[in-house]
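Subject: design request, 161 residues
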């Protein structure tokens, strides 16, 4: 069973909906979800917030936070997930912000650095990962990890796994 099928099977009986907030993946997570027939039962919307302005305007991420911590940071990823959950009025959200390359990296945040955040009712958590490979590889690994962690979290909830 694919990760997206597993996600659908977990969200559908709860009556929950998902929103995505994507920067470096440019909508790949939303596309993976909506590739599944019947996804309108559980997928609400995707925010592609590639620019810092879009993060602020669409998700309510404080521009001062982006300036102080950088767009690729734990605080911004958390704010993106919480913003997607709030703006869409959904129970579940996932956010990604990273450096897919080939340029844009630094010694502190090299190419392949991705911050993830997930939001479920009363809970937002984040994680940083470093992926290897070219731009396409970083983006596909980001999509896959974002969905897999969400499925694991939902499976760990009482009464769902």
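Subject: RE: design request

Done. Sequence follows.
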């Amino acid at each position: 069973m694919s990760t997206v099928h597993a996600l659908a099977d977990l969200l559908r009986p709860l009556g929950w909906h998902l929103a995505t907030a994507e920067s470096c993946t440019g909508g790949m997570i939303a596309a993976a979800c909506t590739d599944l027939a019947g996804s309108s039962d559980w997928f609400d919307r995707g925010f592609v917030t590639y620019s810092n302005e879009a993060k602020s305007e669409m998700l309510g991420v404080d521009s001062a936070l982006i300036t102080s911590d950088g767009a690729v940071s734990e605080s911004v990823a958390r704010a993106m997930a919480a913003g997607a959950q709030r703006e869409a009025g959904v129970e579940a959200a996932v956010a990604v912000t990273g450096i897919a390359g080939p340029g844009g990296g630094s010694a502190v945040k090299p190419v392949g650095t991705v911050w993830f955040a997930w939001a479920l009712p009363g809970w937002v958590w984040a994680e940083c990962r470093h992926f290897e490979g070219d731009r396409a590889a970083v983006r596909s690994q980001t999509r896959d990890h974002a969905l897999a962690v969400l499925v694991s979290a939902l499976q760990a909830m009482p009464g769902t796994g």
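Strands lie at 18-22, 43-48, 92-98, 113-120, 123-130.
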